[in-house]
Amino acid sequence: MKNKNFITFSEKPLLKLVFTLLFFIAISYAYARMGGAGGSSGGDSGGGDSGIIGLVFYIIMAIPFPYNIIVLAIIIVVFYFARKKAKQRTILNTLPSGAGIKKVKGYNDFIEHNPNFDEVKFKEKVKKSFVQIQEAWQNKDMSKVRKYISDGMYQRLNVQFKMMDKLSQKNTIDKLEVKNVYIDRVDTDGFFDVIHVAIHASVNDHFVSEKYPELNSGGSEEFVEYWSYLKKRGVEEKDIFSSDNCPSCGAVLPKVPGEVAKCEFCGTLTNSGEYDWVLSEVTQADDYVSSNPLVVKAGNLQDKVLEIEQQNDDFSIQLIEDKASNAFLQIETARVLNNPAILRRFTTDSAFDKIKATFDEKEQFVYNRIFLSDVTLIGALQKNNMNSMIVSIKYSYQRVVPQEKKVVKLDTVVVTDTKIIILSRNANPEASKGSLYAHRCPSCGGPVGDTIDLKCQYCGHELNSPANEWIVSDMMSLTEYYNYYAMNGANFAAGIKPDVIDKAMDVRDYAFNNALIVMACDGVFAQEEREFAEQIAKKFGYNVDKIEPMFQMAQNGQLSIKMPEDQKKREKVFRLMEKAASIDGTVDPNERQLLDNMKQQYGVS
Length: 605
Prior knowledge:
CATH architecture of the largest domain: Roll
Distance between the termini: 63 Å
């Protein structure tokens, strides 16, 4: 006997049609967005969603009428809001507004171990260093700030000065205003504490070249950057930001900028973190919000790395990242100058030969722009009584070839790429008296020049030995790292899988970023282009108010081209870029050149 409350689909063809349509609509919605699942997970989805929807579909068939209709209605509502929430899980919706945050990760634990920490004074130091470094940058003179910036930070600025001099450039800054400074996160890093600070500021910023005016750029901008400061835990804090005297012996510090922030009288390194907070990294907002999840997804990466190096009080992840950024920039300087001697002292024989082979004497380019967007430790390797630290370096650049009266742009706009650097050191290292990256012998502390000779002229120590210094043992592309990880993954003490690095941004994030660049590359961000950008933003699940900084960066030429490693994803990104170029009814020559350049550089059709 048939249950009167159970209505079969054969009896109600209209109900069957409704269920079928809802089923296929749900599946099509699952596939509607570029990149599949969205959020920071990335990748293409569909199979899992389809299976779940199908299972729910058949369960509803077995529920008596009218309860099956009620259940169906509830599922549709839940599904709609779940999908809407999933679409909004994107790093671009977490871009900072500069207003600050209520709960600072790691702050309570930090205060427990540093009860005398004065947050007000610390923020005053941050503001002072921010303004002083902007002035030093404009004047190309780091003498006033060298005492409280790390070696890697010094190298970041110094390399750009060298490139600017080659292009007869200067960077003028005025109307600098610090609107807000707040602590975003506090980390425990070996024997050091690291405070990550968000700085909300505005400025008029102009790059000017008398010789090559076609390189001139800039304008007014408002931005948020993250500055990371570190200090050794448990040491008394001294003020090296306001004083020109050595924090150890009291002597007046030298005014001449150089590779080392060292007192000439007692030999104290003022930027070691032993005396005061030291600026060790600057990260752009969009890179900061995308790189942090990498560390979280790595699980116990930080704990494992610190466990490996717990016996060495000179170790911290932040300092490893600083050495990696220093090495990378010196390598790129050597590439531009075609001078391999610059990198010989801090590379293994095999790494030196590999990197040197990539130098091209015929391609004498200069970096019109080169800056590190993000530097993150992604793995630790233990093998043959050697510890190796693997660091991901995301950098943005634009190469130009200077000629007598003009420059040829190898890159139409600023583009972003990722390199992997591996630093290796003995598991039980000897005490170091200097840093090769700062032209100091780690064995005796004597000065070391740029030379192919690997013997210290003072003590005869083999310079590129991993006995007491972290040496570059390899540098590779992200694609090469996929193969490296596959072959050496079993030896990793901890690490982030390569595909996770590429999934920090979703396809839609790449596409939206690049589409904005295409629309603005002709120097005009027209109203119809802005409206189209807002349509894309809403379709992709972005909160238009929260991503307003993206529109401003596009209008001011502050965004850089970013592409995923996966070729299929690149094709999707490029198709949207083409659509963005033609939205105003015509493809400007600048837009066409950019698209053609992208085709060639990334192999898209």
